Amino acid sequence: MKMEHSVVLVKPDGLQRGLIGEIISRFERKGLKLVAIKMVQLNDAILDEWYAHHKEKPFFPKLKGFMMQSPIVAMVWEGVEAIDTIRKLVGVTKGRAAEAGSVRGDLAMSQSNNLIHASDSVEGAAKEQGLIFSDDEIFKYTSALDMVVYSQEELA
Ligand code: CMP
Questions:
Q1: Which of 11, 60, 109, 112 for mutating ligand 1's site (highest number of atoms within 8 Å of CB)?
Q2: What pTM did the predictor assign?
C-alpha cells in the first residue's frame, strides 16, 4: 500500500505551551514512524514559499509574524496513507470547531494559533520536506513496530 511522508510542524504556540511531547506521543501511539525531527527558526524566505498559496489572503502577514515568534519543531512522519491519517489526527483549521479527540479539538481554541501544521497532499509534503530538510536528515530504518501495526498485505 501507499507508504507516505507527512511533514508536521509544532507551531510557536505549541512550543510555548509545552505541547511538543503530547503531540509526538499521539503520533507514536497511533503507530506512525518518525523519520526526521529538528528545531528550526523559520524566516521570511521559507514562509513565502511554504504559504505561497495564502499569499493573497488578508491574514498572510500576521501568519508569517506568528510563525516566526519562536523556533518551531519540524518532523517527518511515515506511514501507510500517512497524509490523510495525520490530517484526521490534527483536526480542522479552527481549533474551536475541531473534532474532540483531534490535536486541535482537544488542545486549541484559535483559528490562527492552532498548534500544528500537517501536509495536505503528496506534492505538498515533498515541497515542504525540501524546504526544511536535506536528504541526509530523512532517515530510513526498519521499525519493529511496523510488523505489528500493519498486516503483511498492507506493507507489501
Ligand atoms: P494551517 O491550515 O496549518 O495553514 C494555514 C494557516 O493559516 C492555518 O493553519 C492558520 O494557522 C492560519 N489561518 C488560517 N485561516 C486564518 C484566518 N482566518 N486568520 C488567521 N490565520 C489563519
A1: 112
A2: 0.96
